[in-house]
Amino acid sequence: xxxxxxxxxxxxxxxxxxxxxxxxxxxxxxxxxxxxxxxxxxxxxxxxxxxxxxxxxxxxxxxxxxxxxxxxxxxxxxxxxxxxxxxxxxxxxxxxxxxxxxxxxxxxxxxxxxxxxxxxxxxxxxxxxxxxxx
Length: 134
What we know:
Blueprint lengths: L1 E5 L2 E5 L1 E6 L5 H15 L5 E5 L7 H10 L4 E6 L6 H18 L2 E4 L7 H19 L1
Parallel strand pairs: 3-4, 3-5, 5-6
Antiparallel strand pairs: 1-2
């Protein structure tokens, strides 16, 4: 098991699935695949899934994690904000997958809401603005 700290909450999960939107464009997929590969070197309980247009799907990732022994899965959306997909589509998918798989699945807030993400993006934009002001 590993702990995941988001905001003031500390949650414990057997496995974390990084959820990206998905695309038919392999160039779009590559940064997500590379991130997951880097994370897998130190955290074997992490995998990648795509909501649509690419594989593995969320269903495939949940089943694979369950088959590897996971009983409690966190789904971390690699999204800037919670739009319709994260408010409606993904919770519906997770409800069905929880029932189908018998695994406890928790949908976490999108990465874009994490204070470290916000600070990092702000820093990048400030750096760009300062570079352009010179």
